[in-house]
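As a warm-up, study this chain.
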Amino acid sequence: MSDTTEPSCGCSCSVGPKLIFSCSGAADVGEIADRAARKLTKDGAGKMFCLAGIGGRVSGIVKSTEAAQSILVLDGCPLNCAKQCLEQAGFTSFDHIQLHELGFTKGQSPATEDAVSKVVTTASDLLRGAKA
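Now compare it with the structure written out below.
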């Protein structure tokens, strides 16, 4: 079971979480990205966060994102909708995984456990490398 306690940097502040924003589009690759983000959250690698809240500029979600230790964005297809949402909200410092670059093609990539696992493995490596 994962530890849900936020790490501490040694001062009186708390180090922000590692946030994961995912495409959850209608295509198969959107489903893979979404399922990978949920698995990463379940495994304790980071915390899936609300991309719609970023797009809608919901102040609490934006402020929480500003305080994040790191941000990972998962995009299903080359349109990069999730990445663009973050950029249009003013976020420029984040890791980005484009599933097409991992060999997944929109409309031709069933959302299997193997597909999700491939994305989770790549994302876990990035999240582990995030600075504390």
